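Check out one such.
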Amino acid sequence: MGGNYGLNKYFIIAPFSEIHVCCHSNHKCTVDILEFGKEHRRMQPDFVLFRQNAKSERGDYTNIALALLKGGVQTLNNPESVWIFLNKNWMFNRLQCICKAARPNVIPLIEQTYYPSFNHFSMQPRFPIVISVGHGSHGLGKMKIEDENHMLEVENMLRAIKPVEVFTEPFIQTKYDIHLQKIGAETRAYIRKGISNDWKSNAGSAMLEKISLSNKQKEWLTTISDAFGGLEVFGIDILVAKDGREIIHDVNDVITLLGDSQEDDRKAIADLVQAHIIQSLVFVFYFLAQRAMQQIAVATRVNMPPAPPPRPQSTNVSRSNTLEKNMSGEATVDSDDRLSQKSSANQPQRPVRQPSKQGKESAGNSSQHQDDTMGQLKRTFAGIFGDVQ
């Protein structure tokens, strides 16, 4: 990707051969760009977009891609799918599982035989066949085997350069091949027709034509994308046989942009990257805000002053209530005194010790106070009820 394409963050384009990665225990990684003839640059990447295969004829850089994933660097496709596509054998195994889970002949996948460390061909194939040698998306080379004698020659040659990976596939006479691509929600389809007489339809010069996707092809894109956890960017290579059969030959998460819409495709990929970065930043800010609010709540509870004691009930009463209480209390006391006097009169008299002079004075004062109180009560009742004595 070149240009800004609306991204505020700067980005660096570098091949795997110029990248040195160091992963740390805090789930971070440091990347050094060792570009020949220029000053070395060091950075801590937030996002990585794979635009080249980790395995190719230039070398095997799978460990660098895995180190970036280990360092927690975000990717456009989910990390699990990136790891699967780094191993094409495991990716093909997943495709076979998808085909078995789907209805019969819904996803026609090409047949393949895999030799992880080639020594000899274990079964007699149906000729012609295609042999792919080496790892990577395209391997170290492909050749078409016409008959058994040719296969024996190739077998001796492969045995001399072992250990080497070998794949065999049936040869399919094709009219053309179709390339399907998905970038976000946008899908495209192209027909590539070889002009040369090469047995490989995509070798040499080819004519490119943009076509509309069929419902079957849309279903393939959706099914494969969902099976790998939701792929944002990937492509499907389809072989169209002479009899019109469409056979899925390969699936890649690193696609080659084709046609006149390459600039629009780059813009769409840049928008996806920007959306992923913004989404991750929003999540981080939300997490930090929630954590800060929790800390503030805890600090507030710790520093909060103790609650005041409950407010006592009001003891103020009206003068009328006080007067009524006093009157009722005095009347009760007077009635009690009269009852006590009657009861004492009926009982036999007992000898009582003579009180002291001080006791007499206090008793006289008490009886005088009671007489005054009774007089006040009588005058009050007489004023209220009109009872004049």
In short: Residues 281 and 287 are 10 Å apart (CA to CA). The two ends are 122 Å apart (CA to CA).
